[in-house]
Design goal:
The chain is an alpha+beta fold. Strands 9-8-12-11-10 form a 5-stranded antiparallel beta sheet, sandwiched between helices. Strands 14-15-13-18-19 form a 5-stranded mixed beta sheet, with helices on both faces. The protein has a 3-stranded antiparallel beta sheet with strand order 1-6-5. α12 packs antiparallel against α13.
């Protein structure tokens, strides 16, 4: 046997390092796809990634062997070549299997590193055995060192793969991934050249295996081309799949945000098909239906016909006009009234009207509070009649709408102050309530009555029938009032101003009716008086007549 000596080709050494870096980067990049996919797609990425990574490491190994150039022509046994590929594939498969597990522990990483490193080292030494007509003697220390480097490099690769598999979409991560690939490529190359340094080659004389070996140059070209093509293809595929996954996750995130907006909304939201069938609702929606005593499956049957028709018309209007609609309405269910604000929103999918979302706000409590506030502001708390503010607004509206004329009646209870001072305010209040009821009983349907304050009332009515109305009002006080143990006899004085004869302004008519009422009070109790121009002249204020204070 003759010892074989040779020299390393620097270009092939550099090419082997670049191939190792590409294999490392491919492993780090594909580990992300393995972790983020499931089912058959996961298995596909697992096998494809293992094959590509294994072939990349195997390519680096054989390019590294080709860099060792000797005077003798080198040929390789195809059986050992294929066996070394299987070993590289097995090592890569182990690495991806470990990464694919959920939260791998350090013990699992260590076990995986031992198996992967041993497989890669075995790939290297099986590849060395593929050299025909060669006997190899290994230095035990360097031989063990190559195994140790392979195992530690495998541990680093697995650890980095686990880290990068959880992080995506950052340029910083990309640069760190490239840097890690450079370091891992150096470790893989270091393992290879340590194993080469451990080997002493001896050429055997005249041994013929009976099989045609593979030419080294042909093998080198085939290895580089196939390895680069597969790695580029897998990296491009991983990039495309990553973009697709990112797009899918973005759509999923938007869908989750939308569903969260619907489900956690405090307002009831319902989804209806175009046929009017309720498809779903959020928790607030079901709570409102339960509050109303409505079963979702029989929604339409619970509404009154007029409520059903009104809601259906709005629903069809949104379908036809394809625009959102907002309305306030009252719904009566099982003799209970609910005030709701309804917003109907058309929802489009692929530019086609798909469904209609209905957002309901239960305004019952708010409307009830508003009605109470309105009543407090516009009604007298004692008699429950409209107050002065309401009377002024009503009179202004009545004058705008008048066609045949309007009569304004000012009323004052006679002797009320006497009763109130002598018998107390509680008796006076009860007398006012009883008097208000008698007065209200006489007011026609198109008329209006209000308490202005104290013992004064106002009635707004159509002009025709004013005299008859006045006589009815006066007659109501012919019968005494029985308040507690007291029998109280009172009467009413009425002043009347008419529009448009006496004016068309509400304040002016009230002032003139007030003048007429005082004129009636001075002439005789329990009578009425129309306003006239003579009353205006008689009651015209004069500053000269005002006495000066002492």
């Amino acid at each position: 046997m003759t010892e074989v000596f040779g020299e390393y080709n620097g270009w092939f050494v550099l090419l082997s390092y670049i191939t190792a870096v590409l294999a490392a980067y491919t492993a780090l990049d594909l580990s992300e796809r393995v972790v983020h996919t499931k089912g058959r797609k996961n298995i596909g990425w697992l096998l494809a990634g293992s094959l590509t990574m294994g072939l990349g490491i195997w390519s680096m190994h054989f390019i590294g062997m080709l860099s060792f150039q000797t005077a003798e022509e080198m040929k390789y046994d195809l059986r050992f070549v294929l066996l070394s590929i299987v070993a590289a594939f097995a090592g890569s498969l182990i690495s991806f299997y470990v990464v694919n597990g959920k939260e791998p522990t350090n013990a699992r990483l260590a076990a995986g590193s031992l198996a992967m490193g041993s497989a890669i080292a075995s790939m290297h030494f099986l590849g060395m055995e593929a050299m025909e007509n060669m006997t190899i003697v290994y230095h035990p220390v360097l031989y063990a060192a190559s195994f140790a480097i392979a195992i530690f490099a495998s541990f680093a690769a697995l650890k980095l793969s686990v880290v990068f598999a959880k992080k995506t979409g950052s340029f910083r991560i990309l640069f760190i991934k490239i840097g890690s690939a450079l370091l891992m490529g150096g470790a893989i190359s270091g393992m290879h050249y340590t194993g080469m340094a451990a080997a002493t080659l001896f050429m055997t004389d005249g041994r013929d295996t009976g099989r045609e070996g593979i030419d080294a140059i042909e093998l080198g070209i085939m290895i580089v081309l196939v390895s680069l093509m597969l790695q580029c293809f897998l990296i491009f595929g991983a990039f495309t799949d990553k973009r697709l996954l990112f797009h899918i996750e973005k759509i999923k995130d938007n869908e989750e945000r939308f569903q969260s907006l619907i489900n956690h909304n405090i307002d009831p939201i319902y989804v209806f098909s175009l046929e009017g069938k309720m498809l779903s609702a959020n928790s607030s929606g079901y709570s409102l239906l339960e509050k109303m005593g409505v079963e979702p499956e029989r929604l339409s049957s619970f509404f009154r016909q007029e409520d059903h028709d009104r809601l259906l018309n709005w629903f069809l209007q949104v379908q036809n006009e394809k625009q959102a609609l907002n309305r306030d309405t009252e719904i009566e269910i099982a003799e209970k009234r609910f005030d709701v604000n309804v917003t109907l929103i058309p929802v489009y999918v692929r530019k086609q009207l798909d469904s209609i979302y209905v957002i309901c706000k239960d305004m019952t409590n708010q409307r009830e509070a508003e009605r109470k506030i309105h009543r407090m502001a516009h009604y007298d708390a004692l008699t429950d009649l409209p107050n002065r503010r309401y009377a002024v607004d009503h009179l202004a509206n009545a004058l705008e709408r008048q066609k045949t004329g309007t009569a304004v009646l000012f009323l004052d209870l006679n002797r009320f102050k006497v009763f109130n001072d002598a018998l107390g305010h509680d008796v006076g209040d009860l007398l006012l309530v009883a008097a208000a009821q008698r007065l209200a009983h006489c007011v026609p349907d198109e008329g209006f009555i209000a308490r202005l304050g104290g013992d004064e009332f106002i009635i707004v009515a159509p002009l025709h029938g004013t005299d008859q109305l006045t006589r009815q009002l006066i007659s109501q006080f012919e019968t005494p009032f029985h308040i507690k143990e007291h029998r109280l006899k009172t009467s009413v004085s009425i002043g009347i101003a008419v529009s448009p004869a006496d004016g068309t302004d509400g304040d002016e008519l009230m002032r003139k009716a007030d003048m007429a009422m005082y004129a009636a009070k001075h002439k005789s109790k329990s009578r009425y008086q129309y306003f006239s121009s003579s009353l205006a002249r008689k009651n015209r204020p004069s500053l000269q007549e005002e006495p000066e204070p002492n």
